[in-house]
Specification:
Blueprint: H1 2-24, E1 32-39, E2 42-47, E3 58-62, H2 69-76, E4 84-89, E5 92-93, H3 104-109, E6 110-113, H4 127-137, H5 144-154, H6 171-183, E7 189-193, H7 201-218, E8 221-225, H8 229-235, E9 238-243, E10 246-252, H9 253-258, H10 263-270
Parallel strand pairs: 3-8, 3-9, 6-7, 7-8
Antiparallel strand pairs: 1-2, 1-4, 4-5, 9-10
Helix pairs in contact: 4-5, 4-6, 5-6, 6-7
Amino acid sequence: MEKEREMRFRSAIEAAFKAALARIGARAWLTGIVIALMFAGVTGVIWIGALEVQSGEALGLIGESGSGKSTLVRLLLALDVPTSGTIEFDGKPVDASASARSLHWLRRDTGMVFQDPYASLDPRMSVGRIVAEPLWALGIEGDRRARVAEVLEQVGLDADAGARFPHEFSGGQRQRIALARAIVHKPRLLVGDEPLSALDVTVRAQILELVAELRASLGLTIILVSHDIGVVQSLCDTVAVMKDGQIVESGTTGEVLLAPKHPYTQRLLASIPAIAPRD
């Protein structure tokens, strides 16, 4: 009985995945994602559909805490293993249970910036070693020291910053270092999981401007997880709204944020604090 149930579930996942890809066609280089997870021993589709990202586009994922945003990007980057379902990136299956070597192609095409610029950098390593780590891990040949110096300058740091250690930098500078590490191997896709939330307002604006510049100069495609609607509005072309593991609304940034259709999106946007004018 249980086996038959599992087979029906898998068949439903496969059929939905094929239908989603048929709707997208060949327009998107990130062809689509279908994810099924299992919580509390109950099998069910947590999120099912297709995530379409055009090359050079920036997609924002918004929703309250626990809605599944970070889980979605971690599954896409093979940092977590789905209980069931299918994940594809650029037409290739993503298997998080595969060996590190067999995932080199995915690591080569993607870069990740995490939320906490303090926790994401190894305090025992010099900045130069931290930024160069993807080059060594992926076996990328060439003058690695020159590449590190080049990318540090791209993110607004002096080339000699490579000889220093993370504790010698401010929070905003550490996030610049994290950005340098994420793009040093020249990925096509940059993923940010709340990369600005730990920074103060003025530093946040500077890093946001830097990300926009890097996107334009390097032709990056971006997926940004954020609670900050203002950040998403400033940087992203399209938005997907998540609730309880499902994408409830998606579209262009203007459509979703200025004229939301789903009741949850309307409530989410209405909850944003605003400065009331004084009498």
